[in-house]
Amino acid sequence: MRLEDLRRNLVLKIFSVLIAVAWWAVVRGADTRVRDFNVPVDYANLSESMELSGRVVDTLMVRLRASDDILRNLSEDRLSAAIDLSRAPMGEQRVPIGRAMLRVPAGVEVVRIVPSVVAVRIERRVRRQVPIVVEFAGHPPEGFEKTGHSVAPATATVEGPSSEVAQVTRALAGTILLEGEKSDLEFVTHPTPEAPAGSHVRVVTPTEPVMVRVAIGPAKPAPVVVPPAPPAPRAVPRPPAAKRTGAP
Fold first, then answer.
1. In a domain, 192, yes or no
2. In angstroms, rounded to a whole number, what is the distance separating the alpha carbons of residues 156 and 206?
């Protein structure tokens, strides 16, 4: 094709191309949609001697663009986000979330990620042995009382981030209601660390349930308290009598 042929009706040709591009954009826009998904976060490759502590972001809000057919058949179990912690140092850091961290099907465009930065705190994993305790509520009926109780085993091993394990001083085996009970009780339960909500501390031993035994028997009579005798009154010495003197 000669150059003169290309220049012929050049304005009309450019106008036709612009119309085609605009029409393609309109058709493409009509065929695509956006939709928000909650995508689970996987913290991968963290050393076994380390552990996440504090508040951990476990889901991201991800806005995706795709054709209506793809979005209609797309479920959240086909989406995931992975944060590689293999080289992360101990302490707190902020990790930017990029599109390369997301696993999405072909034909899907990532439009937005919230949050775009995730705070991560890494601590050393430690263990500690704490007593297993049981709590009681209510009282046996009149004439009966709790005479004792036992927990077997008596201790538990807890594990988690070092700063959180340091705050755990006991594991709870539950609360036993004594209201109306006149005979011994036995319970099988799983102890849990006494820790704030959101704590990552857990019980690693015992792996089996613990046995709680409560002894209830006749109430011992209250000891009779004899008030002490009042002290004897102390004799008050009489003043010496005045001497009488004779007349001169």
1. yes
2. 6
